[in-house]
Known about the structure:
CATH superfamily: Response regulator
Shape: globular
Helix content: 40-55%
Structural class: alpha/beta
CATH class: Alpha Beta
Number of domains: 1
Mean pLDDT: 91
Number of helices: 4
Number of strands: 5
Amino acid sequence: MDTASQPAVLVVEDEPLIRMDAVAMIEDAGFRAYEASAADKAIAILEAHGDIGILFTDIELPGSMDGLGLALYVRDHRPSVFIIFASGAVGVDETALPVGSLFFPKPYPAQTIIDALQKMAGNSARQS
């Protein structure tokens, strides 16, 4: 599948090195990636780019909204966007995450994330 035919991924991570690694991993897997360091910036990017079909976010983010709040915003405003959480936070209540989202504890194996992205991209293609 070429990058033009699959959804772009919005990576939201406040740690610059982790964000850089995540973007590189996603682009190496053949996806387009946008990046933001906080939820407010992520919302602006999401509103500016209609090709975003997957949100890949940390839970603990600086600013007015954490990753869970961002995911709930995305679910309300762009319900077709798939959501993946990756967090080093201990004691995450996965029942509080939006229905249909995935959670991976950090550190995560890159291939696990790539597999999830590819599955979501396939589901996205079937929805269109």
